[in-house]
Amino acid sequence: MNSKNLFKSLVIFFCCILKIDAQEILTLEDAVKTALENNYEIKIASNNLLIDKTNVTSGNAGMLPKLAATIVDNNGIQNLSQTRADGTVTKLDNAKSSTLNYGVGLDWTVFDGFKMFAKMDQLKQLQKLGEAQLKLTLITKISDVNATYFDLVQQQQQLVALDSTIVISNQRLALAQNRFTIGKASKLEVLNAQVDLNTDKVALLRQKEMFANTKILLNQVLARDAKIDFKVADTIEVDTKLLLPEISALAEKQNPQLETQILNKDVAELQLKQIKAARYPTVKVNTGYNFSESHSGLGFTTQSSARGLNYGFSATLNLFDGFAQNRNEKISQIQIDNSKIAIYQQNLALHSQLAISYQTYLTNLELIDLEEKNEAIAKQNLNITLDKFRIGTITTLEFRTAQLNYVNAKVRYSNAKFQAKLSEIALKELAGNLNF
């Protein structure tokens, strides 16, 4: 490589460094924090939980009295004719009449077969159900952020690997040109080196495209401008100490999907209590204070008024409703049985997913060790091959094979760590243990 080309390479290198330093450094913690603050699905789930919390009131459960103010004003104009018992006839055209009633009334259900208490407990369980659904949304979104973030990290590592292979391909092309100049190699060797270099450049461009698209995807997950550029970490740290019994124990306590099924059963049982409350009498008390005033243009009484307090109670008991009560109770009991089946089904699916994910996790941990050794061997082999190529003791095909083996080994090692990280994320997601 001559001094002019070296100078150009140094300029490009330092420009790239300055560009990278100008980018925002996005850590995983910052990405998760941004997602929790901005993500639309999380905002919707939070608002739904706020609705559930707002519904947990004594009044919504039917425990409080209802107080209402009423006013009724009726007016009329009529042509009236009255015939009395003695035969006297009285007539009046355009007679005006008016009636005004207003007052305050209170109704209070003091006993409904304990339905109001079951309703209150059900509202509290619905709030817990909303919390579990919000937790599921949070964990799912955090899992998406983790997976996309570490996908970027491993793609960035692949870019580094492809950059290194282009450096090697450039060295190979320069050596081939030098050998051709002094007559130790044919033009075919130079052409082969140029073709392989162009192939590596195409692979690098494709990888850069994928890297840029994944950045846009992460920005979408974070609910921010897709054009925001940033830099991610350069390493993937895998938790190698996960144990299946501990993960399973956490999952049985914290898995939001299993928790949702358990809460659905509780809600169904409280619904049955409310239905059974119809077998008891319903007792209500009422009271009020009313004013009334009326005017009539014709008649024995042309004006009257009244005001005063009224009070009383009422009690109702369902004696026969066409067996609707029995039917409703049977349906509610079937719904409880279905919710129990759903719990068993979810529990079985959860433990199956845990077992599969944990086996994948163990396999990926082994692959990390194996691919790390393969990368070291491939690097050593490439160094030896490069030295031999410089002195012309091996063919270009052997050199290219060693070069590709090294690049593939680096890519497989990076991908092994990424897959292991995905397995770790999946296990923690099932355990409901992804850090917020």
From TrEMBL:
Question: Pfam families recorded for this chain?
Answer: OEP
Q: Which GO terms describe its molecular function?
A: efflux transmembrane transporter activity; porin activity
The UniProt entry's GO CC annotations, sorted and at most eight, read: cell outer membrane; efflux pump complex
Coarsely, its chief localization is membrane
SUPFAM superfamilies (UniProt xref): Outer membrane efflux proteins (OEP)
Could you list this entry's UniProt keywords, alphabetically sorted: Cell outer membrane, Membrane, Transmembrane, Transmembrane beta strand, Transport
- List where in the cell it is found: Cell outer membrane
Q: Could you name the domain of life of the organism this protein comes from?
A: Bacteria
The family assignment reads:
Belongs to the outer membrane factor (OMF) (TC 1.B.17) family.
The protein's name is: Transporter
Q: Which organism is it from?
A: Flavobacterium psychrotolerans
Q: What lineage is on file?
A: Bacteria, Pseudomonadati, Bacteroidota, Flavobacteriia, Flavobacteriales
